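Model: Ready when you are.
Researcher: Fold this.
Model:
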Amino acid sequence: MRKLTLSLLAAAALTSGAAFAQSASYVVEPTHTFATFEIGHFGVSTNRGRFDKKEGKIELDKTGKAGKVEVTIDIASINTGTAAFDKHLQSADLFNAAAFPTAKFASDKFSFNGDKVTEVAGTLTLLGKTNPVVLKANNFGCYMSPMIKREVCGGDFETTIDRTAFGMNYGVDWGFPKNVRIVVQVEAIKQ
């Protein structure tokens, strides 16, 4: 009887563990993922740009309400639509792409409301400095892609950072704002 009880307890533990272990791996899909930025220009307009090259992985446990993400952005892929502006943004005045070729966002703190991710708290490494950042979700969901026949999860996230916290001080003395709005559109494919 004792042997049967232990066997049943072990089976129950394994079964309940399987119910909670719903973590899945996703790879960032680069043609549906962009990190864009917006910063005021002398109080009359807004400069915008995006990074065209990025890669990353996401772990998402919808049942356990947890996740991890790591995304790397190629700084030299900055694209404002104006080659001269891109070159200046890549220079040592601003992103210093030669010395710091990548930026990285990493997190293991996902917040949920039901099955929807509401925010992702992590760190942003830029110009060799790492600071906390919270990306708030404006939209989030998962769907079965009819084209690739796999689950895709994604959303629209945003945050505002103080660029001087990363040592990017160019133009502050002239009145350029410290705050930069970052908008992230991301989709990732289940592996």
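Researcher: Now this one.
Model:
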Amino acid sequence: MSHAVAAIHASSKSEFYAALNRQLEAVLHGERNWICNLAQTSALLMQTLPDLNWAGFYLLENGSLVLGPFQGKVACVRIALGKGVCGTAATRRESIVVPDVHAFPGHIACDSASNSEVVVPLLHRGQLLGVLDLDSPTLNRFEVADARGLERAVQILLAASDVP
């Protein structure tokens, strides 16, 4: 089934993410496949969030993060836990907002055009499954309100999917 993605016009980030997450629930409704839902989520985020150049997932496999479904340019394939923004968010098991990735110690530059980043861990029943990673070419693109809205999106994704 095809889902139309509506443009979101909102007066605040919380209102924007409430609308985005309603769309995410509609897009994922009736499909339980984990990989399919990861792909649909990354596509929806790339289509609806302004000023992104990458949106996708890294999945935990044999102790490192491995590239999963995404939208954007070719990316780093493997990221060690504790390395870069993704590996740090995974290790800490908490979202990280980075206003300027070039100032982040140990930043891994998969795309030199990226200047800011937000990473949200995928936690299911206490298990780390991976991370959601969004990059922007604009400095200071993300703030805590983005992390909170994306954390809700991750909860929706996990609840809608048969996770491994």
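Researcher: Key takeaway?
Model: The mean pLDDT is 95.
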